[in-house]
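lol forgot to send this yesterday, sorry. struct tokens for the thing we talked abt
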């Protein structure tokens, strides 16, 4: 078993419209856009990051908004629900707020003794809010949501799988331990994690595989402190038989990727260097930042990328 992983780092999904995506996360959910950049492999597509004030690992939702992308089809082999943590007593506020803003899929659900508020993103993305009185992380309050209600970061993510056994064993190897079971659900957690350290496995044996598209999670990333810890994790995964990519520089963190037995793409990302490496905290996310290999495309991209505001 490895002990370098402390919880989630970020979750990356697909979207169909950059402006609608930005409006939902900044205006509706009150998160901060902490980075505006482009997809390394498709520089004519944004890569948008939303989180707390500084984009703390465990708070960051990221998106590739591909124009004209088809709608994703929910199924197995994917992250089914991404869950955010909110303060105790705030679900009523969020239910009213999201209802008034015509957010789809609103429903209450009890899971492992906690009341959750489920809802959908602009592309029918699966989300939920869960009250966590023990979550002491500082929220971003510059987005119109007060400190008594604002999102603290991720609470958990739910993996939807045909057979959860092998993925459960993988998560145990990654430092998670089973803390509860309820029917087809298994909850795993890391002791003394980063606040975003819960994973649920939902086993759905008869469901069809998911199709990637708008509203789908592309990958889920787990946090390690630095590059040295990441290399330790990479070696352990390789020694266990997983096919892991070389370390890739993503400007704001270093990343490695591997496919899980259940089909979900996992990433291990470093907490360093962070989103303030190329702009100060007061202005995070305001300017278009480009990877060095795409800097020459700036005149074209500034003209052709969809304006996020308006």
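and heres what i got for the seq, position by position
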């Amino acid at each position: 078993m490895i002990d370098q992983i402390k919880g989630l780092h970020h979750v990356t999904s697909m979207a169909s419209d950059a402006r609608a995506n930005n409006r939902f996360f900044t205006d509706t959910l009150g998160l901060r856009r902490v980075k505006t950049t482009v997809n390394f492999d498709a520089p004519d597509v944004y890569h948008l990051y939303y989180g707390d004030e500084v984009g703390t690992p465990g708070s960051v939702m990221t998106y590739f908004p591909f124009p004209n992308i088809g709608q994703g089809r929910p199924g197995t082999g994917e992250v089914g629900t991404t869950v955010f943590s909110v303060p105790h007593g705030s679900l009523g506020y969020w239910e009213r707020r999201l209802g008034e803003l015509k957010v789809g899929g609103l429903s209450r659900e009890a899971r492992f003794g906690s009341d959750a508020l489920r809802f959908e993103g602009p592309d029918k993305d699966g989300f939920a809010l869960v009250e966590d009185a023990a979550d002491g992380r500082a929220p971003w309050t510059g987005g119109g949501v007060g400190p008594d209600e604002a999102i603290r970061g991720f609470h958990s993510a739910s993996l939807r799988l045909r057979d959860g056994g092998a993925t459960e064993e993988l998560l145990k190897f990654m430092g998670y331990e089973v803390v509860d079971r309820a029917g087809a659900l298994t909850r795993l957690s890391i002791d003394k994690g980063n606040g975003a350290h819960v994973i649920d496995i939902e086993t759905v044996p008869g469901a069809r595989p998911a199709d990637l598209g708008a509203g789908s999670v592309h990958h889920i990333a787990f946090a390690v402190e630095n590059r040295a810890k990441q290399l330790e994790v990479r070696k352990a995964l390789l020694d266990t038989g997983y096919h892991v990519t070389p370390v890739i520089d993503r400007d704001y963190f270093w990343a490695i990727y591997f496919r899980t037995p259940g089909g979900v793409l996992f990433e291990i990302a470093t907490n360093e260097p962070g989103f303030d490496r190329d702009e100060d905290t007061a202005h995070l996310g305001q300017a278009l930042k480009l990877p060095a290999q795409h800097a020459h495309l700036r005149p074209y991209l500034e003209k052709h990328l969809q304006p996020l505001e308006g």
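The mean pLDDT is 97. anyway ping me if u want another try
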